[in-house]
Amino acid sequence: MLGTLLKSVSEPSTKIDKILFLFERLVMGAIDRPTKEIDSDAIHFPLRTHVELRSLEAALENQKYRDHFVARLCNLMCDNTRKSAKACLQYLLSPELANTYTLHGTIRKFGISEYKFYSTVQSALCSRFRSATCHEKDIIHAMATESQAFLHDGRDKVHKRGWRSKEKLASQALSDVTNAVNDSSTTESKTLYTWIICKFINCNKHLYTS
């Protein structure tokens, strides 16, 4: 049946390609839900899933929550820029989630530098440490350097502890897509989402094999 479904949509239109691209970015956490749907009080750190990260990204659109978030970050900072950056990142992201990211992104991973939480941490560091002897570009460089080290350490921790974070996160993403199929009201929508599931599994089949 899987082969039949794939064959039936083997020549998707440009419109479907665009929908697929947007949907894949959604399930991997690159598109935000509307802020009004987010219960900011339900956001707990460190974040462990892409869904939780999307919730934070959406909550940061709210000025009141962003101010509260920055105040929380400032309480984590010390007198050293890099140590402060590390403390903030450790507070925000679990190693399991950090393992699925790089700083600027690759073919298989998104870059944390593209997210609002990253730019918010960076801005907070600049406000805290910028001075006549400590220029903003130096703070930004220190943040990037420490972020790369943090992500590398996260990967090491995941591998040493034997976590299967990619599998868990991929399963969550697949669950999101499956729910979309169940919520679809038309046959056309169900066919499209079914094709998306098939495409997603095919692109990530290495995560479902031992």
TrEMBL record:
Residues 42-122 form the DUF4806 domain. It comes from the Eukaryota. It holds the Pfam family DUF4806. InterPro entries: DUF4806. This is DUF4806 domain-containing protein. It comes from Schistosoma mattheei.
